[in-house]
Amino acid sequence: MTDLLLIAGVDEAGRGPLAGPVTAAAVILDPARPIAGLADSKRLSPIRRERLADEIREKALAWALGWADVAEIDRLNILHAALLAMRRAVCGLGVAPDRALIDGNRCPALPCASRAIVRGDATVPAISAASILAKVARDAAMRELHQRYPQYEFARHKGYPTTAHLEALRLHGPCAEHRRFFAPVAALRQMALVEARA
Q1: Concatenated DSSP letters for 53-113?
Q2: I need a surface site. Which of 30, 64, 72, 186 has the fewest CB within 10 A?
Q3: How many CA atoms lie within 13 A of 134 on its CB side?
Q4: CA distances in angstroms from 149 to 1, 42, 138, listed in the order given
Q5: Which CATH number fits the domain 7-148, given the four candidates 3.50.50.60, 3.60.15.10, 3.20.20.140, 3.30.420.10?
Q6: What is the C-alpha to C-alpha distance for residues 63 and 67, in angstroms, rounded to an integer?
Q7: How far lies 68's CA from each of 23, 44, 101, in Å?
Q8: Does residue 30 surpass a pLDDT of 70?
Q9: What pairs with residue 24 in β-bridges?
Q10: Beta bridge mates, 85
Q11: What percent of the chain has pLDDT above 90?
Q12: Rounded to an integer, what distance in angstroms lies between the CA atom of residue 33 and that of residue 67?
C-alpha cells in the first residue's frame, strides 16, 4: 500500500487592508473525509465561510494559522510579511507535509517542497480550505480590534480602504494598528508632520 502524500494548501488574507495583521492558514485535507462546497473565500457569504471553517477544522488531517503583525508589515513590506505568515502556518502544522501548494505566484521559504499556483484558491481544494480559515480568522481579529478602536468601524470594513474607513482616518488620524507605509496612512502621517512644523 502506497503511503499517502501529504499536501498542504496555503493561503493568506489581509494583504490589501490599511490596518491589522496579515493572516495565513495551512490545511492538509483528509481524502477520506471530503468537504463539499470548498471555494475561494471571497466568493462565499460570511455565514457559509464560518460553517465551512468549522467543518475544515473538524475534518482536516491538520490545520494551522500564521500571523504577521503591523510592526512586521511595516518593517518587511506586505509581500514579505504575508510570506512570513505563510511559513508560520506551515511550520505550525501538527503533521509535516510532503509538499505545500501556495496560492499566488511566490512561495515562502519552507522545510518542504512547494509550488505556487495562481488562482489556486479557486481551483485547489486544500488552498480553498486555507483561504477560508485565513479569512475567518482575520475577520475575527478585526472584530476584536473594533472593540479597542470603535471609531474606525473595523468590524464593518475589516481595515480595507472603504470610503467610511478613509473618512474615519481623516477625522481621527491613524491608530497603532494602521500600516504606516500604506499610501493613505502615510499621506496623513506626512500631513500631520507638516502641520506640526508650521
Answers
A1: HHHHHHH-SEEEEEEE-HHHHHHH-HHHHHHHHHHHHHHT-SS--SEEEEESS-----SSE
A2: 30
A3: 35
A4: 55, 25, 16
A5: 3.30.420.10
A6: 14
A7: 7, 24, 20
A8: yes
A9: 12, 66
A10: none
A11: 92
A12: 27
SS3 38: coil
Q: What are 129-163's pLDDT values in tens digits?
A: 999 999 999 999 999 999 999 999 999 999 999 99
Q: Give residue 195's pLDDT.
A: 62
What is the per-residue pLDDT for 2?
Answer: 47
Q: Which residue has the cell 494598528?
A: 177
Question: Could you read off the pLDDT of 73-107 as tens digits, one per residue?
Answer: 999 999 999 999 999 999 999 999 999 999 999 99
pLDDT at 180 over 60: yes
Of 34, 68, 65, 75, nearest in space to 52 by CA = 34
Domain boundaries, the chain: 7-148
For residue 127, how many C-alpha atoms fall within 13 Å in the half-sphere facing its CB?
21
